Amino acid sequence: MEQSAGWRLTPYPAYNELPRRPDKRSAIRQGRAECRMAANALSGLQRAIP
User: Fold this and answer.
1) How many CB atoms lie within 10 A of CB 12?
2) pLDDT at residue 1 above 50?
3) Dihedral sign from CA coordinates of 22, 28, 33, 35
4) Among 2, 7, 32, 40, which has the minimal tally of Cβ within 10 Å of its Cβ?
């Protein structure tokens, strides 16, 4: 748990593991996934509110 807890500090999950520059495509993919999760959470809240 301690090892995977630091992924929130950087937008690139594998930045600490790989000594090369982060992949821009993977960052965009993760950003889209986070936006999708946030949209799902917001839609769930809107459904919960009568």
Assistant:
1) 16
2) no
3) positive
4) 2
